[in-house]
Design brief:
The protein is of the alpha/beta class. The chain has a single domain, classed as Rossmann fold, CATH 3.40.50.150. Helix content is 39%, strand content 22%. The protein has 8 helices and 7 strands, in the order ααααβαβαββαβαββ. A 7-stranded mixed beta sheet has the order 3-2-1-4-5-7-6, sandwiched between helices. The N and C termini lie far apart (46 Å).
Amino acid sequence: MTPSEFQTLTGATPAGIADLEAFIERLAEANAVMNLIGPDTLPDVWNRHIWDSAQLLKPAGDARTWADLGAGAGFPGIVLAILLKDRSDAHVWLVDSLGKRCRFLQSVVNELSLPATVINGRAEAQRLKVDVVTARAVAPMEKLIAYAQPYLQRGAQGLFLKGEKAEAELIEARKVWHFDSSLSVSRSDPRGRIVSVRSLRRVHNR
């Protein structure tokens, strides 16, 4: 995928494309000294990482506030913050427990003047009220829902980027949690799934 193809798919502004290109450059530099993403995925970064993240905007509807758990390399949080930059009241909280990743995220937020706040801490310890809680490649669904519990129980919709084992992970998660969920096929990779979660409560016998 090229930047122009991405722009056609998403309607991103030229300024948004410029910010994404600057982010990719910063990511490649940081990835040379710390493990943020697999180096073999960089040649396909627009599809594998940027478009994969940006596709969440459609199922999120009019959502303005997001919490990205285990924000790591900035997917999907930094991409969302870039694409939401010109929207009124938009904000993304980037939550990660590792200081070095938070320092990287903060440098990108500062450089690009993004509507985002970096939080160095455990996801489940935060008490943020947001429209959407999201995560990518963080943990199996059972653990991920535990991390997202404080956000979901404050009314957030969960939108999680998962792989081809998403259905099996949901079966395991339902042994611990009651929730409403739906699956849709990823637009960046037909093997991937977007898992939407709402109305969370714990199974009583656990």
